[in-house]
Amino acid sequence: MDKTNSKSEKITIKIGTTTLSSLNSEAGINTDIIGKLSDVIAKLKTSGHHIVLVTSGAVALGVKKLNLSKKPTTILGKQATAAVGQAQLMQVYEKCFSKYNIPIAQILLTRDGFAQREIYINARETILELLNMNVLPVINENDAVASEEIRFGDNDMLSAMVSDLISANRLIILTDEEGFYDSNPKTNKTAKLIPIIEKITPEIEKMACGTGSEFSSGGMTSKVQAAKLATSLGIKTHIIHGKQPEKIFDLLENKNIGTTFLPQTNSTEKRKSWIAHTLITNGKIYVDSGAQTAILNNGKSLLPAGIKKISGKFERGSAIEICILNSEKSFAKGITNYSKAELEKIMGLKSTDIEKTLGYTYGETVIHRDDLVILK
Fold this sequence. Notes:
globular; alpha/beta; five-stranded mixed beta sheet; single chain; disordered N terminus; 38% helix; 18% strand; Archaeosine Trna-guanine Transglycosylase, Chain: A, domain 4; 14 helices; eight-stranded mixed beta sheet; Carbamate kinase
């Protein structure tokens, strides 16, 4: 039964090693928790929400599969164990979500990928396309190849960065606690749950206890840091107990469940401010009056059909100014999905002709409206 009445949202759900792992099970993973979570995600998707799952647990499953007594301490040992465990992890997810006819897609990311523009854009567009195809992206850090120097350190920070990558409306972190407490509830029975945190202050950061488990690499400290990043980007963030994923429905009805960290700004406004004021442009696209009207008055994306002229030298993912033909004054700025060389081949064409002209496509838009800002 669908329990959500809210508008469609893009939601990142992160589940950690401590919540997932079970030393007592034959598989080394808590399949009951994944079963509950898959049921919740299926209902969320049915109600129109777009879900991305960020998961930990590969190392823990690798330890179990290889019959190791404990988590390896060497980098190579961790990488090898993660490679074994990742395969096991995806098998479990595949089995659980197949009951709901939900296809899943494995995506392994590294921190340096977020710093490389082309990789960043490819990852973003791939995930968004998977969501359009009603596929559930299951994301983990690529532990098998990530060096210690460029690791996320834990998947809490990865989940925040993925949330920014896809312009998520909210991030939900499932953990082994009810939420964020004013002290460690495992050692202090009088610890109090804080239901709403308007801003993450130095005092809040000090309250975060850094205790982890044998297999996890992050405690509450890493979750607060992830929430700090996400909320600074305009993404509402929640920490709730992983054994009750059905509480996500209550969150969407704005009930006080666990701890909610309020966003500091609107995520769309933040991204557009970044495009407008931070990115250096590498070229100009000149459009006809129809394209200008569609962008300025109707909030539309830039399509190849409206492009009349191109100048500058730029690659896919570059920031570009948009001008009306025969004018050098730009009225908009955005991030292009196509390079200058590609645009010279498809300018003036219908979006449906892109693939047969180039032999491939990065989508029907040259600059998507989410990556486009109107200049005052």
